Amino acid sequence: MILLTAAGSRTQRHVLSHLRDAGQPVRAFGRSLDRGWFEARGVTDLVEGDMLDRDALRRTMAGIDTVVHLGPGLNGNEAIMGRFAIDAAREAGVRRFVYISVIFPQIDYLMNHRAKRQVEDHLISSRLTFTIVQPQHYFQNIDVKRCLETGVVALPYAMDRRLGFVDMADLGEAVGKVVTEPGHDFAYYPISSDENLSGEDIAAALSRIGGKPVGAHRIPLDEIVAMLAPHFGSADGNIDASADIITRLFTYYDRYGIPGNGRVLEWLLGRPATTFEQYAARSLEGGAE
């Protein structure tokens, strides 16, 4: 039995898709789960709970062989939630812990990267068998249909700054392989495509795809913080912490960007990583989530 934490997230839904295709039994744990969505995919073992609830985590991990843990994005309690999940897994006799972290967790200025590094540190000393997967920025953060409708790619950092990207579906497939195939114990896998794209690059690609001009626009930092902080911080009343995390994240992107390399992902998948144009075409067909 495989347990997915934060199972209602987009990331874990992609992981679930590949686990179910491989015939793996799954238990889903999360704060709020769409039962209809899970049941339609053959998953009926659903547990609603909070990752700050240590007793709930212990109960949920009973009978579990492998945990695939994902912390909540841009949340001030992410590090402690990760430690609680690792401790609960150890106490429940879980055999293996797969952690979905972030590319370059050693970037100390980024509070969300620092939190994930702390979770990695706790996992390494837990005596659990582990695999750490470190994904890049998601293509799914680009709403292709909306960009083509509005004629604008809007991002909260400089339009000439390049970031590495990865398709969430590729990440889900890679994690599925890590869980179901042998040979991944005690491994660290940075997960990225080979495309390091600026907002201008994305706008140019969408102009080609849509056959009409698409421009690139920078969203002011205060606007994106006001938009995102209540969403990511409201669940546990920690909106200020989320605002600080978001401010640092996009300040760093604006100044430095974050590059990526696709060799590890290609090796895991046995094929080239999905490109932005492939993702965009799938998105227009309604299959990108």
UniProtKB/TrEMBL annotation:
Protein name, per record: NAD(P)H-binding protein
A Pfam family assignment: NmrA
Transmembrane segments: none
SUPFAM superfamilies from the UniProt entry: NAD(P)-binding Rossmann-fold domains (SSF51735)
Entry-linked Gene3D superfamilies: NAD(P)-binding Rossmann-like Domain, UDP-galactose 4-epimerase, domain 1
Positions of the NmrA-like domain: 6-235
Organism of derivation: Sphingomonas chungangi
